[in-house]
Design a protein that fits this description.
single chain; 80% helix; mainly alpha
């Protein structure tokens, strides 16, 4: 990575204050697409994408954590529905189990 890109990534990973990180987490938890998130936050979409893709970025951390928390809640609801006999929920939970097993093998 060249010096310019390295400096840009450093800025992106440190240039977001806590209120902005909190808002990114809120929108990610609501499963807002990045393009819409950038528009709502009045941010450059490419810059937001770079920050989310930077593995050392606090933006990535809050984005992925909020998204994972919502996914977890949705899976829990599907499991509850499967337990009471919803055929679609049974199918979805089976897919979640396969996804989990695949992820373990990576």
């Amino acid at each position: 990575m060249d010096s310019y890109n390295s400096k840009l990534l450093h800025y992106l990973s440190t240039g977001f204050d806590q209120p902005m990180l909190d808002r990114i987490a809120e929108l990610a938890g609501d499963l807002t697409p990045i393009s819409e998130m950038a528009a709502l936050l009045d941010l450059n979409e490419d810059m937001l994408r770079l920050a989310i893709n930077d593995k050392s970025s606090p933006v990535r951390r809050v984005y992925l954590k909020a998204k994972a928390e919502t996914a977890h809640k949705l899976r829990k609801q599907e499991i509850e529905l499967a337990e009471v006999g919803s055929p679609l929920a049974v199918q979805l939970t089976s897919a979640y189990l396969r996804d989990m097993q695949t992820d373990e093998d990576l």
